[in-house]
Design goal:
By secondary structure, the chain is an alpha+beta fold.
Length: 131
Amino acid sequence: MQFSEENLISKKQLLEKYSISYGALYRWKRKGLIPEEWFIKKSTSTGQETFFPADLIFERVELILAKKEDILLDELAEKIFGEEETNAKIVIDTVFGEKTFRIKDIKGIKGVFEDGKTVDLSQILDLKKEN
């Protein structure tokens, strides 16, 4: 996804504008409330900084701030993105029992064989994109 250079706001400016903490911003990212692709890393004279598409991030932060007192962040993510996207799961059934994972929480899947060879199985769930 490409964003216009003129329509970017720095992370520092965003945090100041809405009086939110760095921790809150990244918690919202982990919960899926702010998409990874909105975190745009750019080289600046002081090093590397993170920027966001202003219109999109303003709308999203305002929604989160308006709703966060009334609803859990996980529930808000479900409302924003729909139940299917936030709750799609993979179930692994073994002799030890079942283990369930939300697909959005899986960073990678690999098979490891007796000879030590590994095979990346992430493409099965389209997990190749960066999480």
